[in-house]
Write a structure and sequence with these properties.
Oligomer: single chain
Number of domains: 4
CATH architecture of the largest domain: 2-Layer Sandwich
Pfam families: IMS, IMS_C, IMS_HHH_1
EC number: 2.7.7.7
CATH class of the largest domain: Alpha Beta
Number of strands: 12
Family: Belongs to the DNA polymerase type-Y family.
CATH topology of the largest domain: Dna Ligase, domain 1
Catalytic activity: DNA(n) + a 2'-deoxyribonucleoside 5'-triphosphate = DNA(n+1) + diphosphate
CATH superfamily of the largest domain: DNA polymerase, Y-family, little finger domain
Helix content: 40-55%
Protein name: DNA polymerase IV
Largest sheet: 5 strands, mixed
Protein backbone atom coordinates (compact mmCIF):
# COMPACT_ATOMS: atom_id res chain seq x y z
CA UNK A 1 0.00 0.00 0.00
CA UNK A 2 1.44 3.38 -1.05
CA UNK A 3 1.15 6.29 1.35
CA UNK A 4 -0.23 9.53 -0.01
CA UNK A 5 1.36 12.96 0.53
CA UNK A 6 -0.75 13.64 3.63
CA UNK A 7 0.33 10.39 5.30
CA UNK A 8 3.95 11.13 4.47
CA UNK A 9 3.56 14.54 6.08
CA UNK A 10 1.92 13.13 9.22
CA UNK A 11 4.53 10.39 9.52
CA UNK A 12 7.30 12.95 9.19
CA UNK A 13 5.80 15.23 11.81
CA UNK A 14 5.33 12.30 14.22
CA UNK A 15 8.95 11.28 13.73
CA UNK A 16 10.22 14.80 14.41
CA UNK A 17 8.05 14.99 17.53
CA UNK A 18 9.70 11.83 18.83
CA UNK A 19 13.14 13.22 18.03
CA UNK A 20 12.37 16.49 19.81
CA UNK A 21 11.53 14.50 22.96
CA UNK A 22 14.86 12.70 23.03
CA UNK A 23 17.08 13.09 26.09
CA UNK A 24 20.74 13.40 25.14
CA UNK A 25 23.66 13.95 27.52
CA UNK A 26 27.15 14.94 26.47
CA UNK A 27 29.82 14.28 29.09
CA UNK A 28 33.22 15.95 28.74
CA UNK A 29 35.95 15.38 31.30
CA UNK A 30 37.64 18.54 32.59
CA UNK A 31 41.26 18.91 31.38
CA UNK A 32 41.34 15.12 31.47
CA UNK A 33 45.01 14.22 31.05
CA UNK A 34 46.22 17.09 33.22
CA UNK A 35 43.63 16.32 35.89
CA UNK A 36 44.79 12.69 36.05
CA UNK A 37 48.38 13.89 36.50
CA UNK A 38 47.36 16.30 39.27
CA UNK A 39 45.32 13.57 40.94
CA UNK A 40 48.24 11.13 40.94
CA UNK A 41 50.92 13.65 41.95
CA UNK A 42 49.86 15.97 44.79
CA UNK A 43 52.83 18.26 44.05
CA UNK A 44 51.15 19.22 40.76
CA UNK A 45 47.87 20.33 42.30
CA UNK A 46 47.19 24.02 41.93
CA UNK A 47 50.11 24.42 39.51
CA UNK A 48 50.06 25.07 35.75
CA UNK A 49 50.51 21.62 34.17
CA UNK A 50 51.10 20.94 30.48
CA UNK A 51 50.77 17.37 29.20
CA UNK A 52 52.94 16.95 26.12
CA UNK A 53 56.56 16.84 25.09
CA UNK A 54 59.44 18.86 26.59
CA UNK A 55 59.28 22.64 26.07
CA UNK A 56 62.38 22.64 23.86
CA UNK A 57 60.83 20.19 21.37
CA UNK A 58 58.36 20.60 18.53
CA UNK A 59 55.77 18.50 20.36
CA UNK A 60 52.26 19.82 20.86
CA UNK A 61 50.19 20.24 24.00
CA UNK A 62 47.83 17.31 24.56
CA UNK A 63 46.00 19.20 27.26
CA UNK A 64 46.67 21.83 29.90
CA UNK A 65 45.37 22.26 33.43
CA UNK A 66 43.05 25.16 34.13
CA UNK A 67 45.88 26.90 35.96
CA UNK A 68 47.90 26.76 32.72
CA UNK A 69 44.99 27.87 30.57
CA UNK A 70 44.92 31.19 32.43
CA UNK A 71 48.19 31.99 30.59
CA UNK A 72 46.61 31.28 27.19
CA UNK A 73 47.93 27.73 26.82
CA UNK A 74 45.61 25.55 24.74
CA UNK A 75 45.50 22.04 23.33
CA UNK A 76 47.34 21.49 20.03
CA UNK A 77 49.62 24.48 20.74
CA UNK A 78 53.35 23.94 20.28
CA UNK A 79 55.00 23.12 23.63
CA UNK A 80 57.67 25.72 22.89
CA UNK A 81 55.00 28.41 22.66
CA UNK A 82 53.36 27.13 25.85
CA UNK A 83 56.70 27.53 27.63
CA UNK A 84 57.03 31.10 26.40
CA UNK A 85 53.56 31.88 27.72
CA UNK A 86 54.27 30.29 31.11
CA UNK A 87 57.90 29.44 31.92
CA UNK A 88 56.81 28.19 35.36
CA UNK A 89 54.54 25.50 33.88
CA UNK A 90 55.32 21.86 34.66
CA UNK A 91 55.64 19.79 31.48
CA UNK A 92 54.61 16.15 31.89
CA UNK A 93 54.93 13.34 29.36
CA UNK A 94 51.52 11.74 28.59
CA UNK A 95 50.69 8.35 30.13
CA UNK A 96 48.11 7.05 27.70
CA UNK A 97 47.86 3.64 29.36
CA UNK A 98 46.72 5.34 32.57
CA UNK A 99 44.30 7.63 30.73
CA UNK A 100 42.82 4.62 28.91
CA UNK A 101 42.34 2.79 32.22
CA UNK A 102 40.51 5.77 33.74
CA UNK A 103 38.47 6.18 30.56
CA UNK A 104 37.32 2.57 30.86
CA UNK A 105 36.19 3.25 34.43
CA UNK A 106 34.14 6.21 33.27
CA UNK A 107 32.62 4.32 30.36
CA UNK A 108 31.51 1.57 32.74
CA UNK A 109 29.53 4.23 34.62
CA UNK A 110 27.89 5.35 31.37
CA UNK A 111 26.76 1.87 30.31
CA UNK A 112 25.27 1.24 33.74
CA UNK A 113 22.62 3.78 32.70
CA UNK A 114 22.23 3.10 28.95
CA UNK A 115 23.73 0.99 26.19
CA UNK A 116 23.40 3.95 23.81
CA UNK A 117 26.84 5.42 24.49
CA UNK A 118 28.86 6.98 21.66
CA UNK A 119 32.47 7.64 22.69
CA UNK A 120 34.16 10.51 20.84
CA UNK A 121 37.55 10.08 22.51
CA UNK A 122 38.97 8.91 25.81
CA UNK A 123 37.43 11.87 27.63
CA UNK A 124 34.02 12.54 26.10
CA UNK A 125 30.89 10.73 24.97
CA UNK A 126 27.23 11.11 24.05
CA UNK A 127 24.55 9.19 25.95
CA UNK A 128 20.95 8.71 24.84
CA UNK A 129 18.99 8.30 28.08
CA UNK A 130 15.49 8.65 26.61
CA UNK A 131 15.01 5.09 27.79
CA UNK A 132 17.43 4.15 30.54
CA UNK A 133 18.13 1.16 32.74
CA UNK A 134 16.93 2.85 35.93
CA UNK A 135 13.78 4.33 34.33
CA UNK A 136 14.77 7.77 35.59
CA UNK A 137 12.43 10.29 33.93
CA UNK A 138 14.75 13.31 33.91
CA UNK A 139 18.01 13.43 31.99
CA UNK A 140 19.36 16.12 34.31
CA UNK A 141 18.99 13.71 37.24
CA UNK A 142 21.05 11.12 35.37
CA UNK A 143 23.68 13.73 34.48
CA UNK A 144 24.02 14.72 38.13
CA UNK A 145 24.34 11.10 39.21
CA UNK A 146 26.98 10.37 36.56
CA UNK A 147 29.03 13.41 37.54
CA UNK A 148 28.87 12.40 41.21
CA UNK A 149 29.90 8.80 40.46
CA UNK A 150 32.81 9.93 38.28
CA UNK A 151 34.01 12.14 41.13
CA UNK A 152 33.60 9.39 43.72
CA UNK A 153 35.16 6.56 41.67
CA UNK A 154 37.98 8.42 39.88
CA UNK A 155 38.54 11.61 41.86
CA UNK A 156 38.00 13.67 38.69
CA UNK A 157 35.37 16.17 37.59
CA UNK A 158 33.31 16.19 34.42
CA UNK A 159 31.03 18.71 32.75
CA UNK A 160 27.69 17.70 31.30
CA UNK A 161 25.30 19.14 28.74
CA UNK A 162 21.67 18.02 28.46
CA UNK A 163 19.44 18.69 25.45
CA UNK A 164 17.17 16.99 22.94
CA UNK A 165 19.93 16.65 20.32
CA UNK A 166 23.64 15.93 20.11
CA UNK A 167 24.67 19.37 18.85
CA UNK A 168 23.05 21.34 21.64
CA UNK A 169 24.16 18.83 24.29
CA UNK A 170 27.79 19.21 23.21
CA UNK A 171 27.57 23.01 23.17
CA UNK A 172 25.95 22.94 26.62
CA UNK A 173 28.66 20.77 28.18
CA UNK A 174 31.29 23.39 27.38
CA UNK A 175 29.38 26.37 28.76
CA UNK A 176 30.17 26.13 32.48
CA UNK A 177 33.48 24.29 32.76
CA UNK A 178 34.90 22.93 34.94
CA UNK A 179 32.46 20.71 36.85
CA UNK A 180 29.51 22.26 35.03
CA UNK A 181 25.99 21.08 34.26
CA UNK A 182 23.98 22.97 31.64
CA UNK A 183 20.50 22.10 30.40
CA UNK A 184 18.93 23.45 27.21
CA UNK A 185 15.21 22.67 27.30
CA UNK A 186 13.30 22.12 24.03
CA UNK A 187 11.42 25.41 24.40
CA UNK A 188 14.74 27.24 24.88
CA UNK A 189 16.48 25.68 21.88
CA UNK A 190 15.42 28.08 19.12
CA UNK A 191 16.32 31.24 21.04
CA UNK A 192 19.64 29.69 22.01
CA UNK A 193 20.44 28.74 18.41
CA UNK A 194 19.52 32.19 17.13
CA UNK A 195 21.99 33.83 19.53
CA UNK A 196 24.81 31.39 18.77
CA UNK A 197 27.81 32.66 16.74
CA UNK A 198 27.95 30.90 13.36
CA UNK A 199 31.46 29.64 14.08
CA UNK A 200 30.01 27.42 16.82
CA UNK A 201 27.76 25.44 14.48
CA UNK A 202 28.76 21.89 13.50
CA UNK A 203 30.39 21.83 10.09
CA UNK A 204 31.44 25.49 10.09
CA UNK A 205 35.22 25.75 9.85
CA UNK A 206 37.33 28.86 9.54
CA UNK A 207 36.93 29.12 5.77
CA UNK A 208 33.14 28.68 5.89
CA UNK A 209 32.85 31.10 8.81
CA UNK A 210 34.78 33.73 6.87
CA UNK A 211 32.52 33.25 3.85
CA UNK A 212 29.43 33.53 6.04
CA UNK A 213 30.58 36.80 7.55
CA UNK A 214 31.34 38.15 4.07
CA UNK A 215 27.63 37.54 3.33
CA UNK A 216 26.45 39.17 6.55
CA UNK A 217 25.82 35.94 8.48
CA UNK A 218 27.20 36.34 12.00
CA UNK A 219 24.69 34.56 14.26
CA UNK A 220 22.14 31.79 14.14
CA UNK A 221 19.44 34.41 13.64
CA UNK A 222 21.23 35.66 10.50
CA UNK A 223 21.56 32.07 9.32
CA UNK A 224 17.88 31.38 9.96
CA UNK A 225 16.84 34.42 7.93
CA UNK A 226 18.34 32.94 4.75
CA UNK A 227 16.32 30.65 2.50
CA UNK A 228 17.22 27.03 1.92
CA UNK A 229 18.03 27.70 -1.73
CA UNK A 230 20.38 30.55 -0.78
CA UNK A 231 22.24 28.48 1.80
CA UNK A 232 22.60 25.53 -0.57
CA UNK A 233 23.82 27.88 -3.30
CA UNK A 234 26.44 29.34 -0.96
CA UNK A 235 27.53 26.26 0.99
CA UNK A 236 26.38 23.19 -0.94
CA UNK A 237 25.23 20.20 1.13
CA UNK A 238 26.32 21.98 4.30
CA UNK A 239 23.67 24.59 3.55
CA UNK A 240 20.91 22.00 3.95
CA UNK A 241 22.48 20.77 7.20
CA UNK A 242 22.72 24.30 8.62
CA UNK A 243 19.20 25.21 7.50
CA UNK A 244 17.83 22.33 9.57
CA UNK A 245 20.20 22.67 12.53
CA UNK A 246 19.41 26.34 13.18
CA UNK A 247 15.72 25.38 13.30
CA UNK A 248 16.36 22.82 16.03
CA UNK A 249 16.10 19.80 13.73
CA UNK A 250 18.88 17.50 14.93
CA UNK A 251 18.09 13.88 14.14
CA UNK A 252 21.63 12.52 14.48
CA UNK A 253 21.41 9.30 16.51
CA UNK A 254 23.73 8.28 19.32
CA UNK A 255 25.69 5.42 17.74
CA UNK A 256 27.22 3.03 20.28
CA UNK A 257 30.54 1.23 19.82
CA UNK A 258 31.42 2.98 16.58
CA UNK A 259 34.99 2.15 15.62
CA UNK A 260 36.68 5.20 14.16
CA UNK A 261 38.42 4.23 10.92
CA UNK A 262 40.65 7.27 10.50
CA UNK A 263 41.90 10.41 12.22
CA UNK A 264 42.75 13.30 9.97
CA UNK A 265 42.99 17.03 9.52
CA UNK A 266 42.62 19.24 6.46
CA UNK A 267 43.27 22.86 5.58
CA UNK A 268 41.40 24.57 2.74
CA UNK A 269 43.44 27.66 1.91
CA UNK A 270 41.78 31.05 1.58
CA UNK A 271 44.04 31.58 -1.47
CA UNK A 272 45.67 28.89 -3.61
CA UNK A 273 49.28 28.07 -2.69
CA UNK A 274 51.93 27.02 -5.19
CA UNK A 275 55.08 27.79 -3.21
CA UNK A 276 56.62 24.51 -1.99
CA UNK A 277 58.19 26.06 1.12
CA UNK A 278 54.83 27.46 2.24
CA UNK A 279 53.12 24.12 1.56
CA UNK A 280 55.67 22.35 3.74
CA UNK A 281 55.03 24.90 6.49
CA UNK A 282 51.29 24.25 6.20
CA UNK A 283 52.01 20.51 6.40
CA UNK A 284 53.94 21.13 9.62
CA UNK A 285 50.89 22.79 11.14
CA UNK A 286 48.72 19.86 10.07
CA UNK A 287 51.18 17.40 11.62
CA UNK A 288 50.97 19.23 14.96
CA UNK A 289 47.18 19.15 14.90
CA UNK A 290 47.09 15.51 13.84
CA UNK A 291 49.53 14.58 16.62
CA UNK A 292 47.13 16.03 19.17
CA UNK A 293 44.12 14.21 17.68
CA UNK A 294 45.96 10.88 17.55
CA UNK A 295 46.94 11.28 21.19
CA UNK A 296 43.29 11.75 22.10
CA UNK A 297 42.27 8.76 19.98
CA UNK A 298 44.59 6.54 21.97
CA UNK A 299 45.26 3.78 19.38
CA UNK A 300 48.18 3.41 16.98
CA UNK A 301 47.53 3.26 13.24
CA UNK A 302 49.33 1.56 10.36
CA UNK A 303 48.86 3.92 7.40
CA UNK A 304 49.54 7.62 6.88
CA UNK A 305 48.04 9.50 3.92
CA UNK A 306 48.65 12.93 2.41
CA UNK A 307 45.90 14.44 0.26
CA UNK A 308 46.27 17.31 -2.17
CA UNK A 309 43.40 19.09 -3.92
CA UNK A 310 44.55 21.38 -6.71
CA UNK A 311 42.96 24.67 -7.75
CA UNK A 312 40.98 22.86 -10.46
CA UNK A 313 39.56 20.51 -7.74
CA UNK A 314 41.52 17.51 -9.03
CA UNK A 315 42.45 15.44 -5.98
CA UNK A 316 45.40 13.10 -5.45
CA UNK A 317 46.67 11.19 -2.42
CA UNK A 318 49.70 9.19 -1.43
CA UNK A 319 49.97 6.70 1.44
CA UNK A 320 52.61 4.76 3.33
CA UNK A 321 51.94 1.73 5.53
CA UNK A 322 54.16 0.61 8.39
CA UNK A 323 53.81 -1.67 11.39
CA UNK A 324 52.83 1.50 13.27
CA UNK A 325 52.62 5.23 12.62
CA UNK A 326 54.23 7.41 15.30
CA UNK A 327 52.17 9.99 17.16
CA UNK A 328 54.89 12.65 17.50
CA UNK A 329 54.41 15.71 15.30
CA UNK A 330 58.04 15.67 14.10
CA UNK A 331 57.74 12.10 12.81
CA UNK A 332 54.34 12.75 11.22
CA UNK A 333 55.74 15.80 9.47
CA UNK A 334 58.77 13.91 8.19
CA UNK A 335 56.66 11.07 6.80
CA UNK A 336 54.09 13.47 5.36
CA UNK A 337 56.80 15.59 3.75
CA UNK A 338 58.17 12.58 1.88
CA UNK A 339 54.70 11.75 0.55
CA UNK A 340 53.93 15.35 -0.35
CA UNK A 341 57.14 15.68 -2.35
CA UNK A 342 55.97 12.75 -4.47
CA UNK A 343 52.57 14.36 -5.06
CA UNK A 344 53.39 17.97 -5.88
CA UNK A 345 53.61 19.19 -9.47
CA UNK A 346 55.89 22.19 -9.87
CA UNK A 347 54.03 25.48 -10.10
CA UNK A 348 50.58 23.88 -9.85
CA UNK A 349 48.49 25.77 -7.25
CA UNK A 350 47.00 23.83 -4.35
CA UNK A 351 43.72 24.71 -2.64
CA UNK A 352 43.56 21.98 0.04
CA UNK A 353 46.09 19.92 1.97
CA UNK A 354 45.21 17.00 4.21
CA UNK A 355 47.02 14.58 6.51
CA UNK A 356 45.46 11.47 8.06
CA UNK A 357 46.21 8.16 9.75
CA UNK A 358 44.10 5.02 9.48
CA UNK A 359 44.31 1.25 9.87
CA UNK A 360 44.09 1.42 13.66
CA UNK A 361 45.27 -1.54 15.68
CA UNK A 362 42.62 -3.04 17.95
CA UNK A 363 43.28 -3.92 21.58
CA UNK A 364 43.37 -7.68 20.87
CA UNK A 365 45.82 -7.33 17.98
CA UNK A 366 49.20 -8.94 18.85
CA UNK A 367 50.94 -5.92 17.29
CA UNK A 368 49.64 -3.77 20.11
CA UNK A 369 52.23 -5.40 22.36
CA UNK A 370 54.80 -3.33 20.47
CA UNK A 371 53.46 -0.20 22.17
CA UNK A 372 53.26 -1.47 25.75
Amino acid sequence: MRLGPLWHFLYREAFLLCVSMRKIIHIDMDAFYASVEQRDDPDLRGRPVVVGGPPDSRSVVCTASYEARKFGIRSAMACSKAYRLCPDAVFVFPRFDVYKEVSDQIRAIFVSYTDLVEPLSLDEAYLDVTSNKFQIPYAVTIARQIKARIKEETGLTASAGVASGKFLAKIASGMNKPDGLTVILPDQAIAFLEALPVGDFFGVGKVTEKKMKEHGIFTGADLKSRSLSELVSLFGKSGMHLYRLVRGIDEAPVIPFRERKSVGIEDTFSADVSDVVELMQRLRQLAEGLSFRLARHGKPGRTITVKVKYADFETHSKSETRSSIPVAADALHQMGRSLLEQLLEEGRPVRLLGLSVHGFISEDDPQLQLFD
